[in-house]
Automatic annotation (TrEMBL):
Its cofactor is heme. The chain crosses the membrane at residues 71-88. Keywords: Heme, Iron, Membrane, Metal-binding, Monooxygenase, Oxidoreductase, Transmembrane, Transmembrane helix. CDD domains: CYP503A1-like. The lineage of its organism: Eukaryota, Fungi, Dikarya, Ascomycota, Pezizomycotina. SUPFAM superfamilies: Cytochrome P450 (SSF48264). It comes from Xylaria bambusicola. Residues 1-34 are annotated as: Disordered. GO terms for molecular function: heme binding; iron ion binding; monooxygenase activity; oxidoreductase activity, acting on paired donors, with incorporation or reduction of molecular oxygen. This is Cytochrome P450. It comes from the Eukaryota. InterPro entries: Cyt_P450, Cyt_P450_CS, Cyt_P450_E_grp-IV, Cyt_P450_sf. Belongs to the cytochrome P450 family. Heme binds at C541.
Length: 601
């Protein structure tokens, strides 16, 4: 994709630019100057190919190419030098103890990797216990050998320009393959995706009203106005008759039970889409399906591709059903978004010609367009929108689910929360200032994120240059690393760390409590090594301000309009898979519309 001279939306046929040569897959990703990344520039093989598998596949391709020209001897010598340098760096990296090594005579890491998927938390806990306060290595199923840093290193590494989130993501997903483009979008400092989040999705004053309006509509559709059990009409009549004639054996239940994760995904997709795509598209069923499914599908496709040896991935992805599905979703997203964008462009043109002021659209379709014009670059509207979907929808709905479950398990907090909501809603309206004044709600969400962040580690990075830590640990170029999140559950940091306490961060904010956090750190959007729920430092989540507002709007509507409780005997079991930590996908919530209730009533 050319970067000079704005050419509007990238034409369809130029979207999937797959390089057909056999050069190192890492060539598409590199640093331009410290802190400023760009694509399309060459990169040394050793930088990206940090696993033996990738290094040997790259060498294999080079040898084939040279052999064809009778230069086998020279290429083998070159290969030997590259391999030697590579092995040297691996040796240095492996000087750190490995917490989950292979058994004797076990030559493949497949058992260890499988075990990591189901027991990563225990593996990391073992490492933290065996090597207290010191970095150690673990073999991870997703990106291979990973150095785990204790939380005390979070501050030290947080703004290090030689530790790249970009390259970590490139390892995790296959960003250079068609269908995966959205995972590439946010990776570069000058990408319009990041710019739009930082510039527009942080100015929340105008956003509160449309979010709140959409919450009203979406709850009606998704949480429903149902004040009673969903019963087929005929059965209902039978029941009604029996009720009239007998006692209350069939007494109509006024609660309905829902899979919380599913309804929250649908709800958050609606709210987010209102801001990302505007009123016209935010209720488009096809789009809503894609915005929810694409993230899950990309994970599945990446998982499948990880099973394929490096050199074959560029070919295999064309036939892999999961990767085909991704390409179809990107195409469909384009079919939905491009006509709207084109219509707006024509309208702008007409207004310009007639000397009228442009229509004031307030959504990310418009912000991407403006930012692309400012930067003089072309872009794919569906790719940038799917980028937003991947970073925003599942993360936010996961936290909404966890928070609602925590509230349902601690029902004493419901009335104080409703009281707070009542105090900030003015004339039935929720404004940005009101969100800021929801201090108990802020504390409640932060507490739920503390106990169940999206990962058991945070700040996953790749070293783009050798890095030495303050304790003398040497991290060679290519080292993949993560910071342990254990301080979020540590008794030295938080009193009764395993207990959900909705008031915890409110007390800290007001300067009380025994916990060692400063009042500023107690805010939901603040990050620190003691709360890595949104990461920390240069790559801390830039969408957290938007997410915090969206969650407060969502919860204000839900809690004032619905009664909620856990179904009888229900147990909530959040899940850890590898380094990811998910809200219980089967958790159910009993919901009942509060008759006549409106926002803030
Ligand atoms: C409750 C919801 C969310 C949670 C828990 C969450 C969490 C995170 C975490 C843990 C990181 C990694 C930070 C690091 O490694 O230091 C991250 C990165 C990121 N998040 Fe979020 N996030 C949420 C919502 C959002 C939303 C709504 C957006 C966009 C609108 C967003 C955009 C991003 C982006 C673009 C990055 C990468 C930052 C970079 O490359 O520098 N997130 N998020």
């Amino acid at each position: 994709m050319g970067l000079s001279g704005f050419r509007g939306t990238t034409p369809r046929n130029s979207r999937a630019q797959v390089r057909e040569d056999h050069s190192c897959p890492g060539e598409l990703l590199t640093k331009q100057t410290p802190g400023q990344l760009r694509r399309d520039a060459p990169i040394s093989p050793a930088l990206m190919n940090s696993t033996i598998e990738q290094a040997s596949s790259w060498l294999g391709v080079q040898i084939d190419a040279f052999a064809g020209r009778n230069l086998l001897g020279a290429s083998v010598a070159t290969a030997a030098v590259v391999l030697f340098v590579y092995l040297l760096s691996v040796r240095k990296a492996t000087r750190l103890p490995l917490v989950n090594p292979n058994r004797t005579f076990e030559f493949s890491t497949s058992r260890v990797r499988k075990e990591w998927l189901t027991h990563a938390k225990q593996i990391i806990d073992t490492g933290l216990r065996r090597f207290p306060g010191r970095p150690f290595n673990m073999m991870a199923a997703d990106v291979g050998l990973t150095t785990v840093l204790p939380p005390r290193f979070a501050n030290e590494i947080r703004n290090n320009p030689d530790l790249s989130f970009v390259e970590f993501m490139a390892h995790l997903f296959f960003s250079n393959l068609p269908g995966f483009e959205p995972t590439r979008e946010g990776m570069f400092d000058n990408d319009i995706g990041i710019v739009v989040i930082q510039k527009y999705l942080t100015s929340l004053a105008r956003m509160t009203e449309p979010l709140s309006e959409e919450a009203e509509f979406a709850l009606h559709d998704i949480y429903t106005d149902n004040e009673g059990e969903k019963v087929p009409r005929v059965l209902f009549l039978v029941k009604y008759f029996i009720e009239l004639t007998t006692s209350d054996i069939f007494k109509k239940s006024d609660w309905h039970i829902e899979n919380l994760k599913n309804i929250n995904l649908a709800f958050v997709a609606r709210l987010s889409s209102r801001i990302f795509l505007g009123e016209e598209l935010c209720r488009n069923e096809e789009w809503l399906k894609i915005t929810v499914n694409y993230t899950v599908d990309i994970m599945r496709a990446a998982e499948q591709l990880r099973q394929v040896p490096g050199p074959f991935r560029r070919m295999v992805h064309w036939f892999l059903p999961e990767a085909k599905g991704l390409r179809a979703e990107v195409r469909q997203a384009g079919d939905i978004i491009r006509p709207v964008l084109e219509k707006r462009r024509r309208e702008k043109e007409r207004h310009r010609a007639q000397g009228k002021p442009p229509v004031d659209y307030y959504d990310a379709i418009e912000w991407f367009e403006e930012t692309a014009i400012e930067k003089g670059r072309s872009y794919d509207p569906e790719v940038v929108q799917l980028f937003l979907s991947t970073v925003a929808i599942h993360t936010t709905s996961d936290l909404l689910t966890v928070t609602l479950l925590d509230i349902a398990r601690n029902p004493d907090i419901i009335e104080p929360l409703r009281e707070e909501i009542r105090s900030v809603v003015k004339d039935g309206q929720l404004l940005k200032k009101g969100l800021g004044d929801m201090k108990l709600m802020d504390s409640v969400i932060k507490e739920s994120l503390r106990l169940k962040p999206i990962g058991i580690v945070s700040m996953r990075r790749v070293a783009t240059k050798p890095v030495s830590l303050s304790d003398g640990t040497y991290l060679p170029k290519g080292t993949k690393m993560a910071v342990s999140s254990y301080k979020m559950w540590d008794a030295e940091t938080y009193a009764l760390p395993d207990t959900w306490d909705g008031y915890r961060f409110l007390r800290m904010r007001e300067g009380g409590g025994h916990d060692v956090i400063t009042p500023h750190e107690a805010l939901l959007v603040s990050t620190s090594e003691r709360h890595l729920g949104f990461g920390h430092g240069k790559h801390a989540c830039p969408g957290r301000f938007f997410a915090a507002s969206e969650l407060k709007v969502a919860l204000a509507h839900i809690l004032t309009k619905y009664d909620i409780k856990l179904p009888e005997g229900a147990e909530v079991k959040h899940r850890v898979t590898g380094a990811s930590f998910y809200a219980d996908p089967f958790a159910q919530l009993a919901i009942r519309r509060r008759p006549g209730a409106t926002l803030g009533s």
